[in-house]
Amino acid sequence: MTEALDWLARQFTITFITGNRYKLFLTGLRNTLIIAFGAVVIGTFIGAVVAMIRVHSAQSGKLRALDRLCGAYLAVFRGTPIVVQLLIMYYIVFAFIDNGISIAVLAFGINSGAYVAEIVRAGILAVDIGQTEAGRSLGLSSGQTMRLVVLPQAIKNILPALGNELIALLKDTSVAGYVTVKDLAQAGENVRTLTAEPYFSLIFVAAVYFLLVMGITKALRAVERRLARSDRR
Amino acid sequence: MIVVEGLVKKFGGNTVLDDVSEHVRSGEKVAVIGPSGSGKSTFLRCLNLLERPDGGKILFEGEDITDPKCDADAVRRRMGMVFQHFNLFNNLTVLKNITLAPARLKIMTETEAEESARALLARIGLPEKADAYPSMLSGGQKQRVAIVRALAMSPRVMLFDEPTSALDPEMVGEVLDVVREVAEGGMTMVVVTHEMGFAREVASRVVFVDGGKIKETGTPDEIFGAPRDPRLREFLSKVI
Predict the structure, then answer these.
(1) What is the pLDDT of residues A191-221, one digit of tens each?
(2) What pLDDT is stored for residue A226 in this prediction?
(3) Per-residue pLDDT tens for A79-88?
(4) Which residue of B has its CA nearest to A146?
(5) Which chain A residues touch B92 with a CB distance below 8 Å?
(6) pLDDT confidence of A151, banded at 50, 70, 90?
(7) Residues with Cβ < 8 Å from B71, sequence gap 6 or more?
(8) Is A137 within 8 Å of B73 when comparing Cβ atoms?
(9) What is the pLDDT of residue B145?
(10) For residue B134, which residues of chain A lie inside 8 Å, CB to CB?
(11) CA-to-CA distance for A66 and A50, rounded, in angstroms?
(12) 10 Å Cβ neighbour count for A99?
């Protein structure tokens, strides 16, 4: 029994205390959160814009060229692995910038945008066309109708799928180490090498990701409940 | 008030409206009847440009609204429309459904729009539903709200697209009562309907559409009492 406790205490010490290694995890967590948050903002923005262009183009027959450009963007970024995209961004597109975190934010954001675009587009299309017709028949512009009537209803439809994408994105950022970023996963790997012990470092990192995902899930549930007000009978 | 000249509308290779001409005068209540698929709803939807005509001209109060330079939004502000499936905004309360367009389009202030909306709700006997969401209303209540939502814009003409077709039978009466009241107020109306009794009672003129063409038009007495077109006779024998 005491042997086991001694082992645990030693593992804890070399994983977190020795050489202030806890700071490695804190930095890693910070970087992971920066990348995930930045990428969500970029991805949501790109996704919403691309989705609206595609829906508008399909409904009105305008913006054909832009629509094709959006289609190409979706094909390229959904058709290649995120790690390869990340490496291309780091070593080719932004070879002149030596800031892994910024490039990771961009790479993950642009990649996520492609998935968000399809989620948002499906959400908009799921809103009955009669809602749009009613808005237009009252003299509201297509922009006003989209903003005041269609999007608020679409958001309710897409929230679960968007939550999925958010969770996937957070975990995808664990490959940021490929471009020298010291994110949470990289911190675990780093400490594993330093201590030559895999248990605490890797399982601790897994637990932190798990807790983050649980937190996101809870928060999304709360938002969903709030948005469901107009459904109550 | 609305002059339609040689209107053509095609969906793909299918000609739904084939050279339709019609003149709706101010104060008229025109009932449009005909078998399903005859083009009567498409005709109505062309009047406020929810469907873009492929040929012909529509003049509304002297303005050619089929001209590409015409501001369709501005035209629609002067035309109210009531849909078969109500199409209340599901994300907004009943009150907001009614005030959204008048307030957003700066036709009234927010306060004026709200006062006018409450007055309209009182008129249709639903003052207590102001803060309810559409999902809490019955079909008949939804359609009555949809009618006053259109009226809140003070339109010059009201277009009704089968306003009672999606209702349970016991709710048809309450909606027709509101439509009748709007008619008695002197509103110019075009009503696509399957309710022959209602067309007969309220309409000042009845238009029979079949196969994308207007086959016969006349007073309710002429259309229902002495129909000349053989297709109209056949249609009436089936629905009455």
Answers:
(1) 999 999 999 999 999 999 999 999 999 999 9
(2) 86
(3) 999 999 999 9
(4) B89
(5) 149, 230
(6) very high
(7) none
(8) no
(9) 97
(10) 230
(11) 9
(12) 13
Contact B74 A138 (CB under 8 A): no
Minimal-distance CA residue of chain B relative to A137: B76
Cβ of B50 and A138 within 8 Å?
Answer: no
Does the CA dihedral B81-B85-B86-B90 come out positive or negative?
negative
Does the distance separating the beta carbons of B101 and A139 come in below 8 Å?
Answer: yes
Cα–Cα nearest to A177, from A13, A28, A71? A28
Mutation choice for B interface testing from A127, A131, A138 by most B CBs within 10 A: A138
Instruction: Identify the segments of chain B with pLDDT beneath 50.
Output: none
**DSSP letter, residue A14:** I
Mutate to test the interface with B, among A124, A136, A137, A233 (most CBs of B within 10 A): A137
Q: What is the distance between the alpha carbons of residues B37 and B24, in angstroms, rounded to a whole number?
A: 22
Q: Contact, B60 vs B75, CB < 8 A? A: yes
Say if B92 is an interface residue toward chain A (CB within 8 Å): yes
Quote ipTM for the complex: 0.94
Cβ-based contacts of A156 with chain B (< 8 Å): 91
Residue of A nearest to B137 (CA): A233
Residue A90's Cα: distance from chain center in Å? 19
Nearest C-alpha neighbor of A113 from the set A51, A164, A198 = A51
pLDDT at A60: 80
Q: In sequence order, what are the residues at sequence separation of 6 or more whose Cβ sits closer than 8 angstroms to the Cβ of residue B145?
A: B86, B88, B94, B97, B98, B121, B124, B126, B129, B134, B137
What is the per-residue pLDDT across B28-74, written as a single tens digit (0 to 9) for each? 999 999 999 899 999 999 999 999 999 999 999 999 999 999 999 99
A193 vs B: CB within 8 A: no
Task: Give this prediction's pTM.
Answer: 0.85
CB atoms within 10 A of CB A209: 19
Where helices occur in chain A by DSSP H, the ranges are 2-12, 22-60, 64-79, 82-88, 100-125, 129-137, 142-145, 151-172, 184-195, 199-227
